[in-house]
Amino acid sequence: MDLTVPVEYSRAGNTTHSGNVHAIQDDEKFSYGTAGFRFKSEKLPFIVFRCAYVASLRARQLNSAIGVMITASHNPSCDNGVKLVDPSGDMLNEQWEIYATEVVNATDAELPAAVRALEKQISVGKTQLSRVVCGMDTRCSGPCLMNAARAGAALFNVQFDDIGVVSTPMLHYAVKAFNEPKFAEPTHDGYYSAIADSFKKLYEITEEPKDSRYQPKVIVDCANGVGAPRFRNLLERIPSSLLEVEFRNESEELNQGCGADFVKISQKLPANFSPTAAEPKCASFDGDADRLMYFRAKASENSESNDAELFDGDKIAVLIVTYIREQLKDYENSTPMERLRLGIVQTAYANGSSTRYIREKLGIEPIIVPTGVKHLHEAASEFDIGIYFEANGHGTVVFSEIFDRIIRRTPTESLPLRRLALFSRVINETVGDAFADLLAVEAVLRHYGWSMDDWAEKLYRDVPNVQIKVPVIDRSIFKTTNAEQTLVKPVGIQKMIDTDVAKYNNSRAFIRPSGTENIVRVYAEADTVENTLQLGKSLEQVVLNLCNSN
Ligand code: 16G
Ligand code: ZN
């Protein structure tokens, strides 16, 4: 194989979309983090080139389509990133994260040897189905990085499919569709129509309660990202009498003062949403539309207050599990012997009230795993119906083959089971998907005839909580265990956290290093807003003191 790397995609000749050369020093190291490689966009051409090469090798190994997504999600527009997607639409296998890291970190001189070493470790049989499927978000560095990916896949002559500007979940969906033709057509249209048709059919067989307070209208904050054009495309297939969507934040600065991450962390209304206007039901996507956060203006005596009341990933998860359980009752009553296993997966960021509600009211013991979709997805896949959501709005439901056979493929007269089958097709089970999740939430709210007030009052109320980012020089000194809820290093800090937490009622807190930024995150919750802020501040101080003393 000819391993001639086009000079613009070598470390030394790394060329940005503006045409500048941004050489990368040999000793600069990169690692495949929670969300792939994510840096300032000028670092990325050689990384994307090498990742696409790794993707093409994996595609040959598995004789399948492998995905490459070019996005930095909710990060600022000057950043970009790349992550690889496995054939079933899941996150990349962990061993291959290591391979990708090794290949990216080789110097230009070491690259041929690194590539040959990797090729030796895998066996390649038939390759006629191998292809690299690449999508990008709306960042202006995207097209140049798409070219880098095309060049990387070309090293092996692996077929390259540029599917253009898509949300991250659309790319995951397309990869699965390329590999499993029965799943869906691997095109934008295939994705839109599969989801929209299921939504419309579900709508038809759902009778809205007589005293319904449901409103078929949502105002969507698109984070000035890919959600704006692509969700508009999807909605062309859904009559506005079923669901009316008003779009905001479509074409200004990406993720600037808006988007799901901004709303979640600041608990404020995003740009262009007003506390005084009658905007009863609002939702935010993040830049690549794999997170969804519902919100509305928080009732306040101060008409200038920009505070938002959040209906976050936990609220969405509890709403969805309530609905699924209700639909399942028919099945459980008719076949008490063969139960479908239903599970809920959360992270340490889940609001304590949601975890208590799931445990005490729904009688399900939630599984808590470390942050990052791959951990949640993996744990949820152990169930026949696995619901996973991060509080930040990333989540979905995964369904087992048993579910597929019993619920989707067995003809039935039972309305609840038909609803459940359709609901499972509104959901994008490859990964959290803001569009699919929004349609799923609307379907459930309409089913119950619920307004936002109902959603807020009929399930559980959040305990006050706060998240604080503390910049640090070296986050690697922080090591956690117990799904990131306990700090084992630096030694002694966990004791300080425990002492602080014990001062408040209904309180919980943890400190963990971010997997995506050079910061440490403090999370705290307690019985009142004041106590929560105090607890958060005092833990922030613990980190600051530690950093100052080092
Ligand atoms: C990434 C993860 C998200 C996680 C976040 C945590 C994926 C697709 N995305 O956005 O799941 O919540 O990182 O960031 O895995 P942190 O480690 O900086 O808190
Ligand atoms: Zn995202």
The biggest beta sheet reads: 5 strands, mixed
The number of helical segments is: 17
Q: What is the multimeric organization of the chains shown?
A: single chain
Radius of gyration: 23 Å
The total count of strands amounts to 19
Percentage of residues assigned to helices:
25-40%
Shape: globular
Q: Name the poorly predicted regions.
A: none
Structure characterization notes:
The protein is α/β, with parallel strands linked by helices and 550 residues long. Among the domains are: 7-165, Alpha-D-Glucose-1,6-Bisphosphate, Chain A, domain 3 (3-Layer(aba) Sandwich), CATH 3.40.120; 314-430, Alpha-D-Glucose-1,6-Bisphosphate, Chain A, domain 3 (3-Layer(aba) Sandwich); 465-549, Alpha-D-phosphohexomutase, C-terminal domain (TATA-Binding Protein, 2-Layer Sandwich). Helices cover 39% and strands 18% of the residues. The protein contains 17 helices and 19 strands. It has helices at 44-62, 94-105, 111-121, 142-154, 168-179, 188-204, 227-235, 260-266, 313-334, 352-361, 373-380, 401-408, 415-426, 434-448, 452-458, 493-501, 529-549, and strands at residues 37-40, 65-70, 79-85, 131-136, 159-165, 217-221, 244-248, 282-285, 292-297, 308-311, 342-346, 367-368, 385-389, 395-399, 465-471, 479-481, 486-489, 508-513, 519-525. Helix 6 (188-204) packs parallel to helix 14 (434-448) and helix 16 packs antiparallel against helix 17. The mean pLDDT is 95. The chain binds 2-acetamido-2-deoxy-6-O-phosphono-alpha-D-glucopyranose (16G) and zinc ion. 2-acetamido-2-deoxy-6-O-phosphono-alpha-D-glucopyranose is lined by residues 34-35, 73, 371-373, 390, 392, 394, 514-517, 521. Catalyzes the conversion of GlcNAc-6-P into GlcNAc-1-P during the synthesis of uridine diphosphate/UDP-GlcNAc, a sugar nucleotide critical to multiple glycosylation pathways including protein N- and O-glycosylation. Belongs to the phosphohexose mutase family. Its EC number is 5.4.2.3. Pfam families: AMG1_II, AMG1_III, PGM_PMM_I, PGM_PMM_IV.
